[in-house]
Specification:
It comes from Astyanax mexicanus. GO terms for molecular function: ATP binding; protein serine/threonine kinase activity. Keywords: ATP-binding, Kinase, Nucleotide-binding, Phosphoprotein, Serine/threonine-protein kinase, Transferase. The chain is an alpha+beta fold. Helix content is 34%, strand content 17%. The chain has eleven helices and ten strands. It has a five-stranded antiparallel β-sheet with strand order 4-5-6-8-7. It has a three-stranded antiparallel β-sheet with strand order 1-2-3. A two-stranded antiparallel ribbon has the order 9-10. Strand 7 and strand 8 form a beta hairpin.
Amino acid sequence: MKTERPKPNTFIIRCLQWTTVIERTFHVDTPEERDEWVEAIQMVADKLAKQEEEGILCSPTSQIEIVNEEEMDTSISHHKRKTMNDFDYLKLLGKGTFGKVILVKEKASGTYYAMKILKKEVIIAKDEVAHTLTESRVLKNTRHPFLTSLKYSFQTKDRLCFVMEYVNGGELFFHLSRERVFSEDRTRFYGAEIVSALDYLHSAKIVYRDLKVLEDNDYGRAVDWWGLGVVMYEMMCGRLPFYNQDHEKLFELILMEEIKFPRTLSADAKSLLSGLLIKDPNKRLGGGPDDAKEIMRHSFFSALDWQDVYDKKLLPPFKPQVSSETDTRYFDEEFTAQTITITPPEKCELKSSLFFNT
């Protein structure tokens, strides 16, 4: 976007990361130089968009960092490495761009897990190798009651497999889509668990939004409190705080629009959401050096004992009514009704050493 403010010959680059706008401003000496930069950037953007539409099956392996084969060994007991033959495949739980999530049963132990199966070619094509490896490292090294744990990870010729703790109460937004809005008490319960988990991650220098490991400085933690504000707003208000199908208009809403609240919302709830959704991350609730502790002290959470939250001593406002470990009533039937298929490997050769072995 071209502009003459705050200086002549300015141009702005914006992109959207979920509901977070990333914006960078540049100044050059002449209008001609600005036009050259804008044209070059647009050319790259168009090329990337075209590649995404066409789908890239293979990327040059020389562009991808080789990872130590032992780095991803997540078998806690260090037994022999797992393979896909060690599991029975029961139901499809979900499906996305990178692969699918399947309810599996480990043959040796009879334990149920959720197996996340990702296609290597898609991860490479979308330049998600580093992000995927970071996610695996984080899952391997974190232990918290409100974070899903990783039991095993392994790979085949063309897939990465993450064997995760299976929780059959369903996703938060499965329930929210059914009920449209949650009470403040129910939102407080879920919100407190999220705050507890984020506090733990931040103490380990991990930002949840992109599972990025922080450097020595604290930049970036406040993005998680914005995300918390968006989630808690949607739980209590039944809609997103900012929404427009047009991305440009959505940028403007996030950057400029004031938050609107239903009249039924309590003063404490409005205060919390207003603080979490402050646009300046340095002024945002939780954006200072106290991080999560500042949010924990907010009046919206004043009735909670945070140690009781961590110890899971609070009475849940909703308890899933499941009849067995294979009861998937809280997962979308669009997925669970499908027949499980594991398609054969693609012809594209993908070196296992690009990822991990366990």
